Queue: 3 jobs
Job 1
Amino acid sequence: MTDVTKGHTQETSTLTTDQGKTTIADDVVAKMVTIAAKEIEGIYDIGSQKLGDQLSGFTQRLSGHGSSEQGVQVEVGEREVAIDLNIIAQYGVHIPDLTANVRRNIIDRVERLLGLVVKEMNIKVSGLHFPEQEKAAPPPKRVE
């Protein structure tokens, strides 16, 4: 929300009013980001396929820094939020279009539903999903 007062523009937030202050937890924003990202066709999953990234996210959650959604890190201020998102894309999807659609949907949801301004939205494509991986039969047992 923007107030125009005496010739200059001042950013205000609907989260702070004369009646009190609303604080939105990192986990709430992270959950919203996860849901909004998964609404976009071409997203296979949210997160990372790398063990090191998964362990890093686990230690951040244990230390109380970052969000509880795997693959989503948010930093929430009083009026703004910065978002880092790891996605696994379906193979064959045009990545620039996919990330533009994801970014647009997340920013819309966070700003419209939570009243926060998305200051920064970084997306890392950390993996590709190949549909034939699901259809492949497990290898036969070599011993019984």
Note: Residues 34 and 74 are 11 Å apart (CA to CA).
Job 2
Amino acid sequence: MRPYEVMVILDATLEEAAVQAVVNRTSEALASAGGSVARVDKWGKRRLAYPIDHRTEGYYLLLEVSLPSDAVAELDRSLRLTDQVVRHKIVRVPEHRSPRPQRARASELVAARTDNDA
């Protein structure tokens, strides 16, 4: 399972209950695909950088999730089909930010070997 960040912009006219319903549906879809939601940040209503479908505001959500790489396409499709979602973006979190232990890079191994030889 790999860590991902999912940024979702919802319609700003939604009530809090509707926003929570979208979060719950997305969490359930991730769980059924074998993933999990680590954290949900509700940023609230913010002004959009440019109008999208004649909207100037959106409700921003940031989800930190872990899911198998083959489930990303299904999550993308699910968010695209949800009427309340104005825009979304799924980004894989780089290895240096993920909670997994990092593997040593080849350049670090060569540097460590030359330091030990001297």
Note: The chain has a mean pLDDT of 84.
Job 3
Amino acid sequence: MAKLYKFEVVTPTRIFCSEDVELIVFETEKGQMGVMANHIPMLIANKMCTLKIKNEKETKYAFITEGFIEISSSKVTAVVDAAEWCDEIDVEGAISIKKAAEEELTNERHDRSMQLELKASIERSNARIKTAGMMNRH
């Protein structure tokens, strides 16, 4: 049996997740990173991604936005802007938002700031759609 540690995902509006886990996996600028018990303490920026959470009974998936993950000797805390369980994601809504942003991006009258916002919206929709697909694969 793997050793467990306390893991929390905190957003500005709530504690999204708080449980004992044996493994989490997320994305950083340098690639995928996994954390198990007794990991070296650190503070690391995470990318918007599918978060994998494994405990003794199951493996769960959630979409998280970019933020920071603090790893200490007894606890790991992810502080992100937003988080959703894979079965909570409105896939049709995400597809609709993505299509609207892609269409709007073809409009040449937008300034650089608006183009970046539209690209971020597309990236977020893609990540949410990918995470929702994890529900059917596992």
Note: Residues 89-137 form one domain.
